[in-house]
Design goal:
Protein name: SprT-like family protein
Helix content: 40-55%
Structural class: mainly alpha
Number of domains: 1
Number of strands: 4
Distance between the termini: 14 Å
Order of helices and strands: EEEEHHHHHHHHH
Oligomer: single chain
Organism: Algoriphagus marincola
C-alpha cells in the first residue's frame, strides 16, 4: 500500500508499475479502497498479478507459460490498441476464464458460506444457487471498456451481479 494509485487521472483500486527497472514490478493497493469484500479484493489482486506477469513476459525472450506465442500475440495488441491499454485487451481475450477459475477456487476460503446466506446475495441468487457465470462476471470487473467486454451480451447482467452482491458482501478482507 502506498500513495493513492491513479491511472489516466482516475483513482483506481490498485496499480501495477513495471517502470522501476528490469525484473522490478510493484503493485500498489489503494488503501482507500480496501473496505470491500474479500472476494472483490482478491479479484483486484489477481487482475494486478496478471498485469505484472504480462510486464515480466514482455521482458523475457521465452515469453509466457500460458501463451507460447506471447511475444507475437502481445505485439499485435500493442499495434492495434497502442501502448497504454494493450494489457486490458489481451486480458479480456485470453485471461477472463483463468481469473474466473481462480476466484471460484479461492472463494471458499474467503467466506463463501457467509456470502451465500447474505440477504443481499439471496435477493439476487435465491436458494443459494450462484450461477456458473458469476465468477466470470467478477473476472470482467476492471476490463470494462475493452472491445471484448463491449461485445459481451451479458455485460449488464454481470455488472448488476457485481454491484448487487460482491459490493455488498459483509465479509471484509482482514
Amino acid at each position: 500500500m502506498g500513495p493513492t494509485p491513479r491511472s489516466n487521472g482516475w483513482e483506481v483500486n490498485a496499480l501495477t508499475d513495471g517502470s522501476l527497472g528490469p525484473y522490478r514490478i510493484e503493485i500498489t493497493l489503494n488503501e482507500k479502497k480496501l473496505n470491500r469484500g474479500a472476494l472483490d479484493i482478491a479479484r483486484t489482486i489477481i487482475h494486478e498479478l496478471i498485469h505484472a506477469e504480462i510486464i515480466r513476459a514482455n521482458d523475457l525472450v521465452e515469453g509466457a507459460s500460458w501463451d507460447p506465442d506471447f511475444q507475437v500475440n502481445y505485439e499485435k495488441y500493442r499495434n492495434n490498441y497502442g501502448k497504454d491499454w494493450p494489457s486490458h485487451e489481451y486480458m479480456a481475450e485470453h485471461m477472463v476464464n483463468k481469473i474466473a477459475n481462480a476466484l471460484r477456487q479461492v472463494h471458499p476460503y474467503l467466506g463463501l458460506d457467509e456470502f451465500r446466506s447474505n440477504p443481499e446475495v439471496l435477493s439476487v441468487f435465491p436458494r443459494n444457487s450462484i450461477p456458473s457465470d458469476f465468477y466470470k462476471a467478477m473476472a470482467w470487473v476492471g476490463l470494462d471498456g475493452t472491445i471484448e467486454y463491449d461485445k459481451n451480451p451479458s455485460r449488464d447482467t454481470y455488472k448488476k451481479w457485481h454491484n448487487d452482491t460482491v459490493q455488498k458482501h459483509p465479509k471484509p478482507c482482514n
